[in-house]
Amino acid sequence: MRQRFIIVPVCLIILMAVSGCNLQAVTQKSSCKTAELFLSAVTEGDLVKAQELSAGQVLFNLSQRKDVPKAKALRVKTRTAAWGKDWARIEGTIEMETPTGPDIGWYSLDLVNNDNDGWRVVHIADKLPDTQGVGKSLPQTTLNEIKETFTDYLKSLSGQYDDASKYLAGSALKGHQQNAQMFKAGPTIKEFHGMQTRALWTQDNLAVVEFSYRIDERKVCTIGTFWRTPTDQWKLVDIYQR
User: Which pLDDT score, from 0 to 100, does residue 66 have?
Assistant: First the structure.
């Protein structure tokens, strides 16, 4: 009798623990699904759907928009960055095809869970490219392709500012477009030479590369993050000087 008395409570505890884990997994999956649907709706210009999946300031901002640029959502990936009772922070990546070519976006979304409405997006912000974990070695041929992309980008800044956008995606493209009126009047760079490269990190369709060169006789060292598009092009998505 004692053995049966011990085994039954232990089994109940195990069942309760498994049920709790399953419930948490289902809840996290549901919040990720809402984030994916929201990103796809905004990308494809479906304001009605996006408003159905949002609340608070995000819903208000969307309600004030008459139209948004439309693109075709190709692939959406999400992961749970933080999770609590009726709240989740989801990191999402969406690849898209725009009228001017492939593009990508990385976002951080906060969602709340209302009993009647389910998960709703209440905050969204751009985030840096999703570089995580130990990088792999970058083949020399790939490094040469990235170097060519970056070199062509710098050449465009020497006199064809608008053309430089075709080498960019993500936040780099957004920043380029926002600064267009400021820089398109004249060359941003007069000349550059002595380009040297060093592969720093790569994983899946992302690579981080260091560039050393001279602009107008001034030594410059920059670190750029590049994204490989579905058509195997490399585009610059983030850059900074070190």
Answer: 86
